[in-house]
Amino acid sequence: MMRPQITLRRLAEMKEAGEPIVMVTAYDYPTARAAEQAEVDMVLVGDSGAQVVLGHDSTVRVTVDEMLVLAAAVRRGIRSAFVVCDVPFGSTEVSDEQAVATAMRFVKEAGADAVKLEGGGAMRLSRIRAIVAAGIPVVGHVGLTPQTATALGGLRAQGRTADSAARFAREALAVQEAGASLLVIEAVPSDVVEVVLPSVSIPVIGIGAGPADGQVLVMHDLLGITEGRTASFVKHYAAIGPDMVAGVAAYAQDVRARAFPAAEHAYSATDEAVAAARAALEDA
Ligand code: KIV
Predict the structure, then answer these.
(1) 3-state SS string for 198-212
(2) Domains, the chain, with CATH or none
């Protein structure tokens, strides 16, 4: 049976019913297909793609045009999951008009179901209100917001001090009040998140934030493709990175040993075709 389309209404029903919501990032057609075939509920075209697929050292480096290419490829691979696209750093900060124009591009050019905006300060709230007023669903993102990590003192957990926990709580509620349809909470102690959750009526997706209505992980982290250390909240479900290296190394070894290609990897031709090629060379 075909899986029904995941909509905002369905996600709200899942929260209501206490059914966990599964979200994962994807950045291209194959990762989108993997997410769709695994029947996840939501796919996030995260600006983490700046790091895990484009090789930058920070999410702030990715441009709108680059994100649109990734997002359109993901859209082509998804049939029923709800597709959320991150709007990158620098594409909403100037004005509400700039934010709406950027969000529109993700909907019109990439087929996004919603856009995700990081932060819960006054400027971000204004952007969320403007995008929602334009008819585009917004997913908020509070706690650790990597786009502004420098201002937060680095890529570190938030809500661990009294000031930071109070700020997190205020921002979570403010993002909801500004009209966000869902909220991502990243890297906040679960005790602090637990205090805030009863006041949030929209579905909450956690990453390094303890139990919530759902969870999100970066595809390349959970599949073990990311090189080097990953955040302590990541769980590895596969070791695809080492498998990729092993596969390419085995191919290289075969080519060097002239073990590849074998007869079964070559095309065959008629005797006539071979003779014609030989004759053409003799005539040349
Ligand atoms: O860009 C991303 O992958 C994200 C998730 C970590 C939530 O924002």
Answers:
(1) HHCCCCEEEECCCCC
(2) 8-238 (3.20.20.60), 244-283 (no CATH)
